[in-house]
Amino acid sequence: MAQFEEVSQKSKLHPKPEGLALQYGTAGFRTHAKHLDHIMFRMGLLATLRSKKTKSTIGVMVTASHNPEEDNGVKLIDPMGEMVTAVWEGYATQLANAEQDSLLKELKDVIEKEDIDMSEPASIYIGKDTRPSGASLSRAVLDGVSSLGGKTHDYGLVTTPQLHYMVCCCNTHGCYGSPTVEGYYQKLSQAFLQLSQNASNCTDDQKRLLVDGANGIGALKMTEMEPFLCSKLHMVLSNDSSSGKLNHMCGADYVKVQQNAPQGMNMGVGERCCSFDGDADRIVYYYTDSKGCFHLLDGDKIATLISTYLKELLTQAGLNLQIAVVQTAYANGSSTRYLEDVMKVAVCCTKTGVKHLHHAAQEYDIGVYFEANGHGTVLFSKAAQKQIQELVKDPKTNDERKRAVRLLESTINLINQTVGDAISDMLVIEAVLAIRGMSVQDWDAIYTDLPNRQLKVTVSDRRVIDTTDAERRAVTPEGLQDAIDSLVKKYKTARSFVRPSGTEDVVRVYAEADTQENADRLAHEVSLAVHRLAGGVGDEPKPLH
To answer: Signal sequence span per UniProt (predicted)?
Structure first.
């Protein structure tokens, strides 16, 4: 077939280094940019097959998110802007690792298994972040698509969530919005401005927000978007990529891990600050108090702020819709207790990983999910959106209910439901704080995090640990969960769990308790139990104090 002849010829321009094997995970492929040329070409091929199979536009995003600048990566985006399915992740790994002479055989294998009609047209949207390697790598994707006769729209520099948004807009034929960067800015800014009208007399100080752009694409896009916000938000942008390196000592991941302000940001006492990550799909907030203490408001705090705001609006609107917050075992116990006991919001716990959270959130009328690292969004079921829209239009709706449903409608328009989006999430948080007249300190004071500690223990084989109950209890090895249970009983408001890493032979240990000292002690004692019962390698873990 002439079609495969072109694949064969073009693949020689993007040869696979012998012996290199990579796995497509939740974040797609990620590694040093010099190893990725053949991967990009092959993901162009796979995206084209996926498009023909689904009869829809598919996205290909060239990014390595919060990784260092010299890395790059790629992820595929399915028709509704969601991550590609697990079966196709398997095909991605299969194609990526095929040696040069067996690439066509593997390609035909996917076509056969999926019964793909190769005469179907294919449409691919491509985007990239600001990494220097992005230009040549996205050209390799274009080569892959064109060698199977697919059509492409290259958006150039966009945030990852923007490309997810474009793909969803295209496949819903404009119902979700206009598939252009300007369309994205207009939809979000209009919703933000409508919400801002409900905030009582904000001072310039209250509108001021310090933003760390991680020297990445988010900084570039915020600069483009700022005029659309009509001075309702005064952003002071640092790490705007004019001088620093991407993600180097800045960005959401750095701030979360180091529990410290990013370099290059001049924070005043009590000033509200936030950080994006490298491709702008994560956000965390923070401030320093008058004693110089750093306060981080992570994904748990964001989920709590947004879900309590939505719960209040549902009550005011008289809508009987079920709202739930989806967490993982890593969510701080204080946030879970506050949501369940004080706010009476349902909390569902699921396995670690955005995919699991997104899937669980789809089970509710309104599902709020955020990982502690600041990646998350809110999902509204079709039925919930319909009820809200009908109430807005109903002439019998009284003023208080109408105000609440209008706020809900604008909030839905402001949220990027396809994926976690730092820009969208930031605007939602800013609108909620302004409407409720809250400072960042008020928000932080909603509940106090329990002190916690995370450790890891190297083992000879991580597969000896099997878990259940959303990774909160160990099933194997025998005796480990009993040991954890008896250790936890020694401390106040304590809990601990262990789970195998997804990528290396280590077991991750999490512990929380009433004091930092007790959390540290519990984490150490549990790691000793793991080392003894799960085949620890090397010396026993040393106490932290």
So the answer is: none
pLDDT tens digits for 315-358?
999 999 999 999 999 999 999 999 999 999 999 999 988 889 99
How far, in whole angstroms, is CA 421 from its chain's centroid? 7
Architecture of domain 4-157: 3-Layer(aba) Sandwich (3.40)
543 is in an annotated binding site: no
Residue 146 assigned as binding residue: no
Known catalytic residue: 65?
A: yes
Per-domain boundaries in the chain: 4-157, 183-297, 300-418, 452-534
Task: Kindly report the average pLDDT of the chain as a whole number.
Answer: 95
Claim: this prediction has a pTM higher than 0.85: yes
In this predicted model, what pLDDT tens digit does every residue of 26-70 receive, in sequence order?
789 999 999 999 999 999 999 999 999 999 999 999 999 888 999
CATH of 300-418, one of 2.20.25, 3.40.120, 2.40.10, 3.30.70: 3.40.120
Q: Are strands 323-327 and 346-349 parallel, antiparallel or unpaired?
A: parallel
Active-site residue (options: 11, 51, 65, 189): 65
Residue 545 neighbours by CB distance under 10 Å: 8
Phi, psi angles (nearest 5°) of residue 457: -120, 125
